[in-house]
Every structure is written in structure tokens, then in C-alpha cells.
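Trying the structure run again after the queue cleared.
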Amino acid sequence: MDPNTILKGILLGLSIAAPMGPISMVCIRSTLSGGRGAGYAAGFGVATADACYGVIAGLGVTAASSFLLQYLDFIRLCGGIFLCYLGLSTFFRKTTQSIESSEQHLLGSFASTFLLTLANPMTIVSFASIFAATGFTVPNSGGTQIMGLVSGVFLGSALWWILLSMGVSLFRKTLLSPYSLRLINRLSAVILIGFGIWTLLQITR
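Done. C-alpha cells:
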């Protein structure tokens, strides 16, 4: 694999992961309540979903792309409901329960962000547009270069979430009081519910 291709993928992964959104709130909350391990697990869930969409877009799997776009409203419905559910459960969850669940179920942190990221099929449109603009398609570049770029996307996305979790964990002890965690849970819950409602409003009538 060409190192330059992997580097481009890393930069692409960083640029896709960096904007703040509901996924960022989930990772921050996971880190504060469960420590770095929970934050890393949540971040790798996002990176894995990004890589999956990158593979589909890069290899030009039109059947998968058409399927995702055909059922875009249904996927948005599922994603919006899941965000609202996650927000409501966070809002009403006791602080001690939040800490215990995050420490004991790293797989849950991974699965929640993985599914949330997959619930945004427009990610594949972004990847397809970028790949087409840079010439990274199978006929032009070959499968090896595509996989190199996708590997870089995974590394870049994972790197961002690792850095975010490490940064948040520096303030974990300061914010670990029940009052602070309750305030953070309520704030993140409101943001998640807001994004969930916004996602539901995007469903075409």
C-alpha cells in the first residue's frame, strides 16, 4: 500500500470525525462515566462504521449504495428513534447506574456508536463524492489503493476519538462528582434528543 494513500485516508478520517455532533456527545459521556476504556470502545465503533461505508463507496458497490439510499427514510426513522431513546434513557438514568453500565459493558459502548453512525447513510454519499473527486475508484486506482485509503480513514477516525477520550479523561476526576455527572448527563441527553428530533424531521413526506 502506498504510504501517501494511507496518509490521505488518515486526514480524511480526521476531517470526517472531528465535527461535533451526537456521536461526540456519546463518546464524551462514555469517557466521563466509564473511563478511557469506554471512550475508546465508543470511538472504535464510529471508526469501524466509517470504514464500512468507506469500503462501499470506494469499491463502488452500487447495489449497496442504492439500497441505502432507497431506504433512507426508514434508516433515518430508526436512527432518530434510537437517538431519542438514548437521550431519554440518559436523562432519567441514575448517576451510579450510568457509571456501572459504562464500566461493565464496553461492547455496548462500541455497538451504540457503531449503529448510530450506520444510521446516517449520507456518510456514504460524502465518501463517494470525495473518492470521485480524488479519483479513488476501483477502475482508476484498483482495490489495493482503495483499501489503503479506507485503512487510513479508519486510523484517522480512531485517532480522533482516542485523542478526544484522552482529553476528556484528564477532567474526569474533577467532573466525577454526582452533581457534575448528572449535569453532564442531562446536557448530553438534551443534545441527543435534539439531534434525534432533527433526524426525524428530515424524513421526506
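The radius of gyration is 18 Å. Worth checking whether this holds up in the mutant runs.
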